Amino acid sequence: MILSDAESTPPGNVPDDSRLDPTFLHARREAMVIFLVWCVALVWSISICYWLGYGVSTTHLATIWGVPAWVFWGIATPWAVAVVFSLWFCFRYMVDDDLSGRRQTALAEPLDSGDQPEVVG
Q1: pLDDT digits 0-9 by tens, 32-77
Q2: Residue 55 DSSP one-character state
Q3: Is the dihedral of CA 12, 15, 16, 17 positive or negative?
Q4: 100-117 pLDDT, tens digit each
Q5: 23, 60, 61, 75: which one has the fewest Cβ atoms less than 10 Å from its Cβ?
Q6: pTM for this entry
Q7: Within a domain: residue 82?
Q8: What is the extent of the structural domain holding 24?
Q9: In this structure, is the dihedral angle defined by the CA atoms of residues 60, 61, 66 and 72, taken in order, positive or negative?
């Protein structure tokens, strides 16, 4: 459930962040950061690969450690930066929410007659 209290929001109104569940807010914030970084990496990779690699003759192809410069700067560098960012994001930025109290509360609530699980077999 997204809302933290039992009141529902009237149709057409968006609930303010103070009424949303903190776990949802953390997940939304983390998803927005990941999507933003992904977009930056996408634009960087396409731009650099095009700028350094498209229309360059093989006789004038610049290399770094034996790898074409467009591959090094457009693919290997963003890949390495993404690995470092992922490690930082997972160990420093992400919030570990305690879900143990919610599971016990959810298990204690009775199911409505329409919410009965379907038995297959």
Answers
A1: 999 999 999 999 999 999 998 888 777 778 888 988 888 899 999 9
A2: T
A3: negative
A4: 766 555 555 555 555 555
A5: 60
A6: 0.60
A7: yes
A8: 20-88
A9: positive
CB half-sphere exposure, 69, CA atoms < 13 A: 13
- C-alpha to C-alpha distance for 118 and 121, rounded to whole angstroms: 10
- Residue 34 within a domain: yes
Decide if 53 contacts 74 (C-beta within 8 A). yes
Block residue for tokens 């963003």 = 78
Using CB atoms within 10 Å of the CB of residue 69, give its burial: 0 to 12 exposed, 13 to 18 middle, 19+ buried: middle
Q: Is residue 111 part of a domain?
A: no
DSSP 59-79: GG--EETTEEHHHIIIIIHHH
Tokens of 22: 């903190």
The answer to the question of residue 106 being in a domain is: no
